[in-house]
UniProtKB/TrEMBL annotation:
Record keyword Membrane present: yes
PANTHER family with a match to the protein in the record: ABC-TYPE MACROLIDE FAMILY EXPORT SYSTEM PERMEASE COMPONENT 2, MEMBRANE COMPONENT OF TRANSPORTER-RELATED
Protein name: ABC transporter permease
Domain ABC3 transporter permease C-terminal: 295-409, 686-800
Superkingdom: Bacteria
Subcellular location: Cell membrane
Domain MacB-like periplasmic core, chain residue ranges per copy: 21-247
GO cellular component, one term: plasma membrane
Topology in the lipid bilayer: Multi-pass membrane protein
GO molecular function: transmembrane transporter activity
InterPro entries in alphabetical order: ABC3_permease_C (IPR003838), MacB_PCD (IPR025857), Macrolide_Exporter_MacB (IPR050250)
């Protein structure tokens, strides 16, 4: 019986080549998209899940309630007392449920939020790294090639490096152990361990780790920008441990109107759920996983709907076969098995083609998305997913045709009376509407995502980021005289328009200090401040030419000036948002105190963006420090003379700072990186929307071909009776346009709701205008017209003698 089913299925596959080709192509495109999205989703979900102790690893986060507002972050709670004192301290000793505890520096707000210089002999390289405490390698499963995980970071002179770094400096991991590396031309660290290069599915990025205590004791830099990780005992209850941690923390907090609560989040969940909502980590990249998973389901459903429609439409051709089978004894269950088997065969062919496409296009997909996904064909789990996808697609796409065809009455079939019931017609048309609802929704989403991505990439930030680059103040440039000499020499060189400095790069002003937070001596206050009022500022120190170099605009007041000697000691600039949140009226001349410095507001800067458009503009306070031993040197190059400017910059830099490799960053390129995820999303949505339209139009093509085939004699009669070609084309295509119009009115509110929700993730965003829906609708109608017009016009031009010859 099974052999007979397979034989009949193969015969039908070869007999109806055009319709089966359309079905296979549609299923192949749908399944291929599903496979690629599956690989992307699995790669995202596997990030940080490779650690052996993953089930007991947790990140600490703090929920902060202040001034009636609730916020949250991963920073370790800190109190300043001759440097930062971590309030969670040594919880491991106080709470038995905590097996290990480790601090790790994120690097976003510290001087090492950029590559750092290591040197041995004549070899010197800039590499990215961080700081971690002694339990780090006990908790996290980064393979140690040489050395001991338990003691790798025990000493403040310890340095753990990657295989890549060991190969760069010493030729091999084995040769690196016990060797000394000069750090930033200031300190020597001893290599105590070499770990394997970090896997791609890892959220932490570092080529070296220094003992975290060395940051304060040897490098003399204090900050609270450390995250705390804990490994719990196997039988520990997370809620109970949270309670114990908060009980441990509370006595150490200052008694004021602010409260801090500590929570625990599974470390492996942090990558996808790293965005805080109401003080707790909930959203984040998981939104993209959900979005792409939904797109995969949409595309697969569109392909399956095609199959259902075409198979149901073709039922007339197989009616007599069904009637004969029933007469000779085939049960309805036998017929359902036959038709499901045929759909599974088509699904099998489609998934084989999809796997070949996946292998062929995977390198391009990796480049497209910035991933490093390896071919999964050697993974048993992937074959399980692929088999499940094939079976699901085959059963779903073949279910309705099988049930419909098996329900036909043999007496009526063999008499030649075959007529679709009204419910069957409505169901078939409903499927067509459904697939176009999905297609139009995807098309609207693509237009919105593309416009928002274009908006954030091209919007004016409030400063001119073109022809602007920066280099780090390090080495010899940390000397005041050397910096001033560097600035003076560079200003005379070809291609250089202007040079100045800032305490941080303009696109990443990360420090946020509340009016009563931070170090006590750094607290920010102002004239007219109300008791308990707190404003989170972005503070920055700049040179006298900063405003001119950045092309910032003043709302009122004046810029810093060399003509006013007191500007360096008692003058501040603030932005419009700061004035608003401080509640100042007539702010010019009001006093402000910050960093043990009291002065007056001399100017109000128009708001400009220092972070991505996901975040609102923060209050900014700026003072003048013509020299500072840290920060960046900003260089404005002459338009069209970038090559000359870089040559000038490198020659002066190497002469003055020979112990450090020359490196620079362009502001516009780094700004692009802020929206890497959105750019990938825009590219993928373009591809998926195009494929959705293509798959839907393949179904339309099949339906119009079948409709013409069934109505050939009707068309001939109409032409004999005087119908024009235009009337024939309208007759054949009118019903399809009516279904698309219905789909448009259903899809529009769905797409509007989904896109408005997605846009909520941006503090600055476009408006979802009516013309986006109009453009999507016109585009679908135009593509539909192109799809069916050729076949419809061909049928309309057919000689009626030919179509009526058999009569």
């Amino acid at each position: 019986m099974l052999r007979n089913y397979v034989k009949i299925a193969l015969r039908n596959l070869l007999k109806n080549k055009s319709f089966n080709a359309i079905n296979i192509l549609g299923l192949t495109l749908g399944i291929s998209c599903c496979l690629f999205i599956l690989l992307w989703v699995l790669d995202e979900e596997r990030v940080d899940k490779f650690h052996a102790n993953e089930k007991t690893l947790y990140s600490l986060y703090q929920t902060i309630t202040a001034n009636g507002k609730v916020s949250g972050n991963y920073s370790t709670p800190v109190r300043y007392k001759d440097g930062p004192v971590f309030l969670v301290g040594n919880m491991k000793a106080a709470i038995p449920d905590i097996k290990y505890q480790a601090f790790y520096a994120t690097g976003y707000e510290l001087p090492w939020g950029h590559p750092e210089t290591f040197q041995t002999g004549e070899k010197k390289f800039k590499l990215e790294g961080s700081r971690a405490s002694s339990d780090f390698f006990r908790m996290f499963s980064y393979p140690i090639l040489v050395g001991n995980a338990a003691t790798a970071l025990n000493d403040i002179s310890s340095l753990a490096i990657s295989r890549k770094m060991a190969d760069l400096f010493f030729g091999s991991p084995q040769k690196a152990i016990g060797k000394s590396l000069r750090y930033e031309n200031k300190l020597d660290f001893v290599v105590t361990a070499v770990f394997e290069n970090l896997p791609a599915q890892n959220s932490l990025k570092f080529d070296f780790l220094i003992n975290w205590e060395a940051q304060q004791k040897k490098l003399e830099w204090a900050s609270n920008d450390f995250r705390t990780y804990v490994q719990l005992a196997d039988n520990a209850d997370v809620t109970t441990v949270e309670t114990k941690i908060n009980r441990f923390l509370q006595p150490q907090l200052d008694k004021n109107d602010r409260s801090i609560r500590i929570g625990l989040q599974r470390y492996g969940d942090q990558y996808l759920h790293g965005h805080f909502v109401n003080g707790k980590p909930e959203d984040g990249r998981i939104e993209y996983v959900r979005l792409f998973s939904g797109v995969a389901i949409f595309l697969l459903l569109i392909a399956c709907v095609n199959f259902m429609n075409l198979a149901t439409a073709r039922s007339v051709k197989r009616a007599k076969e069904i009637g004969v089978r029933k007469v000779v004894g085939s049960s309805r269950l036998d017929l359902i098995g036959q038709f499901l088997g045929e759909s599974l065969l088509l699904s099998f062919v489609a998934i084989v083609l999809s796997l070949l496409l996946m292998q062929l296009l995977l390198p391009a997909f990796n480049q497209f998305t910035g991933k490093q996904i390896e071919s999964p064909v050697t993974q048993a789990s992937f074959w399980g997913y692929a088999t499940g996808l094939m079976v699901f697609t085959g059963l779903l796409s073949g279910s309705y045709p099988a049930l419909f065809l098996s329900s036909l009455k043999p007496v009526r079939i063999l008499k030649g009376v075959i007529q679709f019931t009204r419910s069957a017609v409505w169901f078939q048309q409903g499927l067509t509407v459904f697939q176009f609802v999905l297609s139009i929704t995807l098309l609207v989403a693509t237009l919105v995502i593309s416009r928002q991505t274009s908006y954030v990439r091209n919007a004016h930030l409030g400063y001119d980021r073109e022809n602007l680059l920066y280099i780090r103040i390090e080495g010899a440039l940390m000397s005041k005289n050397n910096y001033l000499f560097f600035k003076d020499q560079l200003s005379k060189m070809p291609g250089i328009a202007m040079v100045d400095r800032s305490s941080e790069a303009p696109h990443s002003m990360g420090f946020v200090i509340d009016g009563e937070e931070g170090r006590k001596e750094d607290a920010i206050s102002w004239e007219g401040k109300e008791k308990g009022q707190s404003v989170a500022f972005h503070p920055t120190s700049v040179g006298l030419d900063f405003v001119k170099l950045m092309n910032l605009k003043l709302a009122e007041g004046r810029d810093f000036s060399r003509a006013n000697a007191t500007d360096s000691t008692d003058a501040f600039l603030v932005n419009e948002e700061a004035v608003k949140q401080m509640g100042l009226k007539n702010p010019i001349g009001k006093w402000v105190s910050a960093w043990q410095k009291k002065g007056h507001i001399i100017g109000i800067l128009k708001d400009y963006h220092t972070n991505s458009f996901h975040e609102p503009i923060k209050p900014l306070i700026v003072d003048v420090k013509e020299y500072e031993y840290f920060g960046v040197i900003l260089v404005r190059t002459v338009a069209g003379q970038t090559r000359e400017a870089l040559a000038s910059l490198e020659s002066v830099y190497k002469e003055l700072n020979p112990n450090y490799p020359f490196s620079y960053q362009f502001l516009d390129q780094e700004y692009e990186q802020l929206y890497r995820s959105e750019q990938v999303l825009a590219k993928l949505s373009n591809v998926f929307a195009a494929l959705a339209i293509v798959i839907s139009c393949l179904g339309l093509l099949g339906l119009i071909m079948f409709s013409i085939e069934q109505r050939t004699k009707e068309i001939g009669i109409r032409k004999v009776l005087g119908s024009s070609e235009r009337q024939i084309v309208t007759l054949l295509s009118g019903n399809f346009f009516r279904l698309i119009l219905i789909a448009f009115f259903i899809a529009s509110p769905l797409a509007w709701f989904a896109m408005n929700r997605w846009l909520q993730g941006f503090a600055y965003r476009i408006t979802v205008s009516w013309w986006i829906f109009a453009l999507a609708g016109v585009s679908v109608v135009a593509i539909t017209l192109l799809t069916i017009s050729y076949q419809a016009i061909r049928a309309a031009l057919m000689n009626p003698v030919t179509s009526l010859r058999s009569e």
